[in-house]
Amino acid sequence: MPLEIPSDVRRATIIVVGNEKGGSGKSTVAMNVAIALLKSKQRVATLDLDGRQKTFTHYIESRYAWAQDAGLGLEIPRHVYFIENMDHPTAEDETADGKALIEQIDALTGNHDFIVIDTPGRDSYLGRLAHAMADTLITPLNDSFVDIDVLGTVERETLRITGPSHYAQMVAEARRQRQLRDASGFDWIVLRNRLSFHNSRNTRCVGLALDDLARMLDFRCVEGLAERVVFREFYSRGLTALDSLDAKTLGVRPTLSHVTARLEVDNLLRSLNLAGLPSGGELVDEKRDAA
Questions:
Q1: Which range marks the domain in which residue 109 is found?
Q2: What DSSP assignment string belongs to the chain?
Q3: Number of domain units in the chain
Q4: pLDDT in tens, 38-85
Q5: Residue pLDDT, tens place only, 105-151
Q6: Is 289 part of any domain?
Q7: Does 74 reside within a domain?
């Protein structure tokens, strides 16, 4: 039985980053969104529901450590991580975990404008519950038919979409729960991550398949982030593409790749249409930070 979510628990805007496949870039997207909101003077809390991998948590811990070591005034959100009962949980275990999550979100909403939640790369009770509480759902997706089946089933010969996947059905159920609870849905955004620099046949076919899925499942498809070594460099120091592009902050001399990554992230953030973010590119000043 789904856990009932009190209608008064939701005062902050809840952004959920979800995909039941690992390696899609969820934590990178969650971190860049959270820091962008902080830089826009929003009060931001972050939750990591993947208590096993804790990639989002490690990202924020690295940011705190780098700020201390380098003497930087980096923006750092209020962060919480959950360890879900995964050893054959009973219905009572799941209910207890769900109540703890709702209570934590309720405690954070009074002092924060946004809560950014990173979910596990697998099916989980807390992940499903977080989806049902979302105002905005962001699903990063590697730009490949290997990963597109997280949204829909693909006919092998024609590459046509034949139906929704288990994850897409879960999102539909989360939307139904939201509508029953407070007569509102949520904005679902699918990010095409690790985009190829070449306009290959595979890229075009993936785009056509996503267009079909967007009509079937009611989501917006936007361009995400290319595969860049620079994003892995950011992670090791807890940085994002929106932090100052100078040698002291980065720990290395800035390059054109850093500037290009920043432009990608800025374009991505503006396409999300989040109320707390500026829409005219005020987040970045390439001339100043590249100087």
A1: 11-230
A2: -PPPPPGGG--SEEEEE--SSSSSSHHHHHHHHHHHHHHTT--EEEEE--TTT-HHHHHHHHHHHHHHHHT------EEEE-----SS--HHHHHHHHHHHHHHHHHHHTT-SEEEEE--SS--HHHHHHHHT-SEEEEEEESSHHHHTTTEEE-TTT--EEEE-HHHHHHHHHHHHHHHHHS---EEEEEEESB-SS--HHHHHHHHHHHHHHHHHT-EEEE--B--HHHHHHHHHT--TTS--SHHHHSS---HHHHHHHHHHHHHHHHTT-TTS-SSSTT--HHHHT-
A3: 1
A4: 999 999 999 999 988 899 999 999 999 999 999 999 999 999 998 877
A5: 999 998 999 999 999 998 889 999 999 999 999 999 987 777 888 89
A6: no
A7: yes
In a domain, 5, yes or no: no
Whether residue 156 is contained in a domain is answered as yes
Contact 50, 121 (CB under 8 A): yes
Q: Closest by alpha carbon to 189, among 108, 261, 77, 270?
A: 270
The CATH number that applies at residue 173 is 3.40.50.300
Contact 202, 145 (CB under 8 A): yes
Position 1, amino acid? M
Q: What is the pTM of this model?
A: 0.89
Which conformational region is residue 223 in: left (phi greater than 0), alpha (psi within -120 to 50 degrees), or beta?
A: beta
Strands 161-164 and 187-193: unpaired
Q: Which of 39, 74, 41, 81 is nearest to 58 (CA)?
A: 81
